[in-house]
Amino acid sequence: MKDKIIDKAAELFLTVGFKSITMDDIAAKMGISKKTLYKYFSNKEQLVDETTMSFQQRINARIDDVLAKDYNPIKELFEIKKTIQTFFQITDTSPLYQLKKHYPETHDKLMDCEQKECAQLFGQNISRGIAQGLYRKETDIETCTFFYYALIMHINATTILEKDASKLELALLEYHIRAIATPKGIAELEQQLATLNEIKSI
Question: Which fold has domain 56-201?
Answer without folding.
Answer: Tetracycline Repressor; domain 2 (1.10.357)
